């Protein structure tokens, strides 16, 4: 009887983790998971915003196939009746459970988190979630505000708790029930932090003295950044503390000291998240399930922390599209564990020192759209077939590919070009590629540039990331028939990773790139 699955997805988490080489962050529990996992250091989301990314990786299809670029349509009605990853596990005899933010709530998951298609029982949402955007942050004057930077005293919060604490408690409760009932399960746990507001227990600030916090390495808007590529971070401007700074729209930089406070609170929120993950994985040990449960850990997209003079997600840069991705597979990424041995002892970020290196690490460029077929293969289920060119009428297929063959391929073996993939035309035998995209309403930043509604989209930025470069074309887009016009290019970007790892020097205009155009058109 196959493995269980614990699928952890974090909201807006870029790979600021010890296991990804970050020197400042304290993330001992996620690092410990990495030390027993296959870690992908070049994993990318298909669109850097919550609902489109989640529907994409949960169905294994790209945004052009789900036709969701905003928050306002349900793919089963609007695009095609696609099976989801949890639905596939459910149809294969698993009890499927959702805790916290897995699907994006609202229209895009039919106001039900896609229940009953995807889940065996109605999804759990923490009751404290409804206070997320309330005035719960105490200002210097003692009054309460709806701030971006929001360390709190948890005992003063409504209900004396926070959403991610409640989600961890519920997930642990469900693990105990599954253990008792001996039911094979697929448990998805969606954590909210470090999504804004950066609201977390205030003691986590102690881990990050402000004098240790630097600005982004490139806090300026790059000279050759096309205006269509810039995201004006409208959502954080609406928070009380940012609004009070009165920065000019769209490029006016935030004051340096406030930039450092945002960065400090993002890190603090990551350590708070790490504690939740630590408690959850420790419960896997306590229930004796760590030796027969696959653990996947990832995020829906990243979050810019001042790089390129930008904040939040909503762009095609690595800081917005790159995500952590790791797979713990008992007996495959680790030696089989003897009954009762502890794989995930809880580590306290306030006292734990010393990192742990990932068990295995692949620098191969991979996409979140590949998680569904990969997890199916790891669990011993039939891998969903590759989608045909047009798949609106196909219920079960994937536009990703299983990346299980990267797990044990030493980097050299993989270099021999023995890449397996079902669809030979799109087989990048020379090098793997990750595609991301982002819509814009206009060529210059305006109030809805970050989150244009479908009817307002006029330009689509298609971006292609390989080990060597990121290439992005901003092309005319017609939302009425979902068509992109690659002959009408509004702007382009090309960054060479070896000489420009932070993507600051756009060389699109001084390069011939006919070969890249051919590649992005597939």
UniProtKB/TrEMBL annotation:
It is found in: Lysosome. One of its GO terms (biological process) is carbohydrate derivative catabolic process. The keyword Nuclease does not apply. It is an enzyme of class 3 (hydrolase). Residues 4-380 form the Sulfatase N-terminal domain. One of its GO terms (molecular function) is metal ion binding. It catalyses: Hydrolysis of the 2-sulfate groups of the L-iduronate 2-sulfate units of dermatan sulfate, heparan sulfate and heparin. Pfam families: Sulfatase. CDD domains: iduronate-2-sulfatase (cd16030). Its main location: other. The keyword Glycoprotein applies. Its cofactor is Ca(2+). Its EC number is 3.1.6.13. GO terms for cellular component: lysosomal lumen. Keywords: Calcium, Disulfide bond, Glycoprotein, Hydrolase, Lysosome, Metal-binding, Signal, Zymogen. Lysosomal enzyme involved in the degradation pathway of dermatan sulfate and heparan sulfate. Monomer. The 58-kDa mature form is composed of two chains resulting from proteolitic processing, the 42-kDa chain and the 14-kDa chain that remain stably associated and form the 58-kDa intermediate form which is enzymatically active. Belongs to the sulfatase family. This is Iduronate 2-sulfatase. The lineage of its organism: Eukaryota, Metazoa, Chordata, Craniata, Vertebrata. The gene is Ids.
